[in-house]
Design a protein that fits this description.
The chain is mainly α and 134 residues long. Helices cover 60% and strands 0% of the residues. The chain is globular, with a radius of gyration of 17 Å.
Amino acid sequence: MVEEPRPGATGIRARRRRAKRGRVTKTDYIPELSEVRMVRRAPEAPLTGVSAEDAQYLFARIGAVNAAFGLDAFAGLTFAQIPARALIHQFIEWWRTLEPETDAQREAHGQLPGAIRLIDTVSTWLEEQAGRRR
């Protein structure tokens, strides 16, 4: 007999039990190595190597997801106050866990991969620049 997980259980055993019962949802995921690396590569400080247009684009993605899904992430912060690592982590988590149902949600959700790639590209560039200075 399979033991029922306690409410809110999120460990690997709980996921396996839900999978056996056919109840694995999109929110039940283990981050891929590439996602972990993207988060680790991103600076802990706000992004400094982006143009004003890129910063506006990334900040608009936060607003679009918040509005479409009724969330309140990074409330009261400007783009210059949001650490890049926290931002890319949140974008990846939204991409992997949110399940869009409306057109607005599908549009906001569909724009997340581009935002993730932009942050990762800038993070890689900043990493290379720091390596050259050494």
